[in-house]
Design goal:
This protein is of the alpha/beta class and about 325 residues long. Helix content is about 50%, strand content about 10%. The protein has a single domain, classed as TIM Barrel (Alpha-Beta Barrel), CATH 3.20.20.210.
Length: about 325
């Protein structure tokens, strides 16, 4: 079975044939392909090349468009700069009232970085066909609002000026739908939703302000024929009941979340993807230790909907042997 066929079988509840391997690789992928990160983030051809190198050298079971969170922000008018070998940076905008939102640029699919992403999916489709799942990406409404006006400012607004916060998140959601559809039309099988900042808010705040927006986005992506992979790194145990109700297909589970508890709260219909500690993999563990830990996790997850990964992005300095050890465990 191809990785895409395995994913569809896993989603439909059939017995797994081997364990899928979905490491989050961005800077690690660029380094493995001999690239500067500025080129990986700026040139879709370089990003595609690096991900395919990971498929070939690590037998990674998917490819992704992940490189930084600022594609949509740039389309909203943020100015992106590209340090030579670090994650791109983006300016924030000084918006404080609903009236100020009129100054926010109307994002378009033809915006440079948006088009760059869509072109990457077309190139993946050309080179890989239907063998490997292609994961597109959008920022969640809260995460994108934080990117536009800054995290501190947005968090203050959720408490002090909720009407403005909701209006800004609605703008973000509306474009996330447009962007997601364009990626699906280009060939994306899965749309990842990045909502990492949600791990920093309470269960009640998520329920009151964010859940309905995330649910609307997830439902829309499903209506367009793609699966959804929700990424909220950090300890999201308190959010798992709401995430279950939002019904993404795959949820990234970070290393500080107990996988048994996550299974208990999410159930059989949601695939959990995780959850080795990426920092320990990079700094403390040998390849043999990574292999044994991966095998232990795989044995524990037998019969449950599960994809092997680290809990978050593989750090750039992680020994290749450690990542390969995860794959060796997955194919045992």
């Amino acid at each position: 079975m191809s990785p895409k066929e395995k994913l569809m079988a896993l989603k439909s509840g059939k017995q797994q044939v081997g364990v899928l391997f979905f490491p989050i690789v961005m800077h690690f992928a660029a380094r493995l392909a001999g690239q500067k990160y500025c080129d990986f983030a700026r040139d879709y051809r370089e990003m595609v090349k690096a991900n395919i190198v990971c498929v070939e050298r690590m037998e990674m079971d998917y490819v992704t468009v992940m490189c930084d969170p600022y594609r949509e922000t740039s389309a909203f008018g943020g100015v992106v700069t590209y340090p030579e070998d670090a994650v791109p940076r983006c300016t924030t905008q000084d918006l404080k009232t609903i009236e100020d939102l009129q100054m926010l640029k109307t994002p378009e699919i033809i915006s440079e970085r948006i088009k760059n992403c869509i072109d990457s999916i077309r190139l993946y489709k050309e080179k890989l066909g239907d063998s490997v799942p292609i994961v597109g990406w959008v920022e969640g409404p809260l995460a994108e609002a934080c990117d536009i006006i800054g995290m501190e400012q947005m968090m203050l607004n959720t408490c002090m000026n909720p009407e403005f916060a909701e209006a800004l998140m609605r703008r973000c959601l509306n474009f996330a739908k447009v962007f997601a559809k364009a990626q699906i039309d280009a060939g994306a099988d899965i749309i990842g939703i990045g909502e990492a900042v949600c791990s920093q808010i309470s269960e009640d705040q998520y329920a009151e302000m964010i859940f309905s927006l995330d649910k609307e986005l997830i439902d829309y992506i499903h209506s367009q024929g793609a699966l959804v992979k929700l990424h909220i790194c950090g300890n999201i145990t308190h959010l798992l009941p709401a995430i279950r109700d939002a019904q993404p297909d795959i949820v990234d589970i970070d290393s500080m979340v107990d996988m048994d508890k996550a299974y208990e709260l999410l159930g059989d219909n949601i695939i959990r993807c995780g959850n080795l500690d990426p920092v320990k993999m990079a700094r403390e563990m040998s390849a043999e230790e990574v292999y044994q830990l991966s095998m232990s996790l795989i044995r524990k997850e037998k019969g449950r909907p599960f994809i092997l990964s680290a809990g978050c992005e593989i750090p750039v300095g992680t020994p290749l042997e450690n990542v390969l050890a995860m794959k060796m465990a997955a194919i045992k």
